[in-house]
Amino acid sequence: xxxxxxxxxxxxxxxxxxxxxxxxxxxxxxxxxxxxxxxxxxxxxxxxxxxxxxxxxxxxxxxxxxxxxxxxxxxxxxxxxxxxxxxxxxxxxxxxxxxxxxxxxxxxxxxxxxxxxxxxxxxxxxxxxxxxxxxxxxxxxxxxxxxxxxxxxxxxxxxxxxxxxxxxxxxxxxxxxxxxxxxxxxxxxxxxxxxxxxxxxxxxxxxxxxxxxxxxxxxxxxxxxxxxxxxxxxxxxxxxxxxxxxxxxxxxxxxxxxxxxxxxxxxxxxxxxxxxxxxxxxxxxxxxxxxxxxxxxxxxxxxxxxxxxxxxxxxxxxxxxxxxxxxxxxxxxxxxxxxxxxxxxxxxxxxxxxxxxxxxxxxxxxxxxxxxxxxxxxxxxxxxxxxxxxxxxxxxxxxxxxxxxxxxxxxxxxxxxxxxxxxxxxxxxxxxxxxxxxxxxxxxxxxxxxxxxxxxxxxxxxxxxxxxxxxxxxxxxxxxxxxxxxxxxxxxxxxxxxxxxxxxxxxxxxxxxxxxxxxxxxxxxxxxxxxxxxxxxxxxxxxxxxxxxxxxxxxxxxxxxxxxxxxxxxxxxxxxxxxxxxxxxxxxxxxxxxxxxxxxxxxxxxxxxxxxxxxxxxxxxxxxxxxxxxxxxxxxxxxxxxxxxxxxxxxxxxx
Length: 655
Hints:
This protein is α+β, with helices and mostly antiparallel strands. It contains 12 helices and 35 strands.
């Protein structure tokens, strides 16, 4: 039986012969008929201010609500007063520093031991240093010392304290340093008074000493393995309520706010300048979305000027005052996010959005004409209106797709059996979502509208969720920390193949998201790891690129494959996914004519079962290994069940 894997490209002809329990599959690679160039942007990423994606994922700050937006009765901070001292803890507008209040500790007597505030559930690693500071002042004259204590156990010996004797009437920054005596996820930081005093606390901070400009070193290392060519920020739903101006300047003075998209404290510590530092640290190009939900045209134009304007412009001068004299190279700008959805702050009809889109773009390009624009898209009527009306004011049209896995990790025995039983269908679901986006977009082209035909597709959110319940999977900590399995990596791999096959129309794709929140990287409070999808994205980004190569096909329904040729190096890469949960496959590659290659390399991602996952701080169950197996043309090459393999042939030549 002949099966066409994609409607526009003849891809993999798989002639199948049963050999015992394995299948032999013949792949004929048409290297002499290269197709579309593959955009490196297909390996993009996406970080959003949601849960622990940025905060405690990318950003290294250990403390939550460090500027005391929330009252102590509904906060990560608790009041500590074991001996019943006369102590009050409250918000005080008189000492406002960041936002409209500070936190006040008013101790009116000296009876009993230390009393104050404490935050628990902090992560520490034995022997590791932690740097922090407190910005403090007394509301009235006092010489009472302030104790800052980091504890990693209940015994008084299980911790370190610093004594601050120079607190005065003016706010001052007091640095401190600790070395952890144990590895724990249950450490605490306390601010304590033992004598009468009225103390204002503007903010506190605690980070690992190995942070990189405020970012987690371990997370950055893993993002560099993903090597995303472009990263989208700050949202997502978050962007529709975001005021970027709240997150520039002195971080300690930026107002903390309750953000309405995900209902959480936003400290505004990670703003545009920090995002650009992140991009520089991991070597990714920035893609910034502007707020078209509750935001204004003027604010979006100001943001473009802040990022890209010279220091002689008003907002470029503000950037220079904040320590960045040279303009940032920000080429890609998204005009809003999912404005069609009733879950989106400020959502509107497509007719209103089309007018709004053009107004935003005109104002943004007036500040920087060279920027490129990504418009909000959605299959069906939304695209019916948007593309004809706004094609001239966009470069790419966005589309989003998520597949629901349904099962909680770790899988129960019953869920694991159901997952495996339905896997052949599930493994194609993410790819099917990508196909729907591509099909809707492709059918609008080639109808005589040259302006529309120049627009390409950006699938700038694609991925897998367990479901839309924010509760984490078993190993997770924060909202939407859904852990991916080997099976999910295979499903994501098949979707990635679909993106590669659609390289003629898809210019960008951004896995959603990068860290923790449905992320390719998972972190605990102390450790980080690539999850199975992270291994997939890192391997393909490193090895599969260049020009799409068609492969004729006939046969096996359990192998999904793509081929790409890097003309500059002469390397041919093949992505080979055996998505059968039970059957191994032997693959034989065939090239028309006389094809030679200098050497071959291969890598494989697999694990003990479809439900296998990786957990930070533990040995990986799903990993990437180099295959030692010899390879030769016209000889069988083994693809184990439920595995992802990338084969790279170096210096391929046709004769």
